[in-house]
């Protein structure tokens, strides 16, 4: 499974002249945890996260401590002043397993997906959780459709349970079995795939 199979696209971006306030409103209204920042040529130059938005922007309650001048919240600024840059991004053909490792190791909640330096999508932890939670009948339908396209209709019997795909095979063609496994494992939501002789 590749990043392009699970990414959200088209991706919402902001430009360098967007304000922190407008970006915060966009994030809150759309339920985003991060938004890529692009320049005038749509090239990725940074990412603004929830942490970037809130850092230093809410005053301490005066009932508990009187703020001094250097403790006042920062004025509303351009998003370019608070974004995280440089930003880690990955290509659309990146293996999702590698993407998950990079996100986990880097404690990254949202990973921009790029073609060169142009943003073509974004993968969030929510996208990955959604893939894992796909319903078995939905996964089965996708596997059947993809196998029919490459191997012909009715070539394979397909069963899915908890994301594990069992492919029933009446033939004994090692090459076709390998192709079927590769196709099945590329379907979002599939955690494993096995070929079983028909009747088992």
What do you see in this structure?
This protein is α/β, with parallel strands linked by helices. The chain has 7 helices and 9 strands. A 3-stranded mixed beta sheet has the order 1-2-3. Strands 4-5-6 form a 3-stranded mixed beta sheet. Strands 7-8-9 form a 3-stranded mixed beta sheet, with helices on one face. Helix 2 links the parallel strand 1 and strand 2 (34-38). The mean pLDDT is 87.
Q: Could you list some keywords that capture this structure?
A:
200 residues; alpha/beta; three-stranded mixed beta sheet; 7 helices; 33% helix
Principal-axis shape: elongated
- Which segments are poorly predicted (pLDDT under 50) over 5 or more consecutive residues? none
The number of helical runs is 7
What's the helical proportion of residues?
Answer: 25-40%
For the biggest sheet, the summary is: 3 strands, mixed
Structure class: alpha/beta
Spatial order of the strands in the main sheet?
1-2-3
Distance between the termini: 27 Å
How many strands?
Answer: 9
Q: Write the element-wise H/E pattern from the N-terminal end onward.
A: HEHEEHEHEEHHEEHE
Strand composition percent: 15-25%
Rg: 23 Å
pLDDT averaged residue by residue:
87
Give the secondary structure arrangement, pairings included.
Layout: H1 3-6, E1 14-15, H2 20-30, E2 34-38, E3 44-49, H3 50-54, E4 90-91, H4 96-105, E5 110-115, E6 118-124, H5 125-132, H6 136-151, E7 157-161, E8 164-169, H7 174-185, E9 192-197
Parallel strand pairs: 1-2, 4-5, 8-9
Antiparallel strand pairs: 2-3, 5-6, 7-8
Helix pairs in contact: 6-7
